[in-house]
UniProtKB/TrEMBL annotation:
<comment type="similarity">
    <text>Belongs to the beta-class carbonic anhydrase family.</text>
</comment>
<dbReference type="InterPro" id="IPR036874">
    <property type="entry name" value="Carbonic_anhydrase_sf"/>
</dbReference>
<dbReference type="Pfam" id="PF00484">
    <property type="entry name" value="Pro_CA"/>
</dbReference>
<keyword id="KW-0862">Zinc</keyword>
<dbReference type="InterPro" id="IPR001765">
    <property type="entry name" value="Carbonic_anhydrase"/>
</dbReference>
<keyword id="KW-0479">Metal-binding</keyword>
<protein>
    <recommendedName>
        <fullName>carbonic anhydrase</fullName>
        <ecNumber>4.2.1.1</ecNumber>
    </recommendedName>
</protein>
Amino acid sequence: MSILKEILAYNEKFVENKEYQKYQTTKFPEKKLVIISCMDTRLTELLPQAMNIKNGDVKHIKTAGAIIAHPFGSVMRSILVAIYALKASEVCVIGHHDCGMSALDPDDFIEKMKDKGIQEETLNTLKYSGMDFNQWLKGFDKVEDAVKDSVSMVKHHPLLPEGVRIHGLVIDPETGKLDVVVDGYEQEKH
């Protein structure tokens, strides 16, 4: 059975048995918090448990490495929507140890693209049109620095209203232990 068919078969029973009822909530985050975390599979259940978060408590945005790569990209737009339209008032950027984005090598990544059938001609066209693969595929050496960079991008965004607190944390993907990198209560917007 394909993954999609397996999901749909399970979903039919889920809806039929009204299992969704225990997850019903509003679109507004109860804790008025936006979390940007890595998409790492180890964090799917660990992160909410480690933070005492249940369905309806937060807006949760996942991206590779918890990196906010562009001040006007979809991640930053989602943060601003959560703040302006959905009543969030704090943001947590949460990176983790042993991240796949740590020391990501753009050249190696491009080779993997070629191995999967992406043509050199396509890559050259993108480079010619201004695509900087080294910047776009850049990982990080130290997760704490990556968290600080993403916190800074949010904190200094020209559309961020005054008073929104931006925090940075790092989680251990084995134990769930959280370490504070940036305490938004101690920082003032510049």
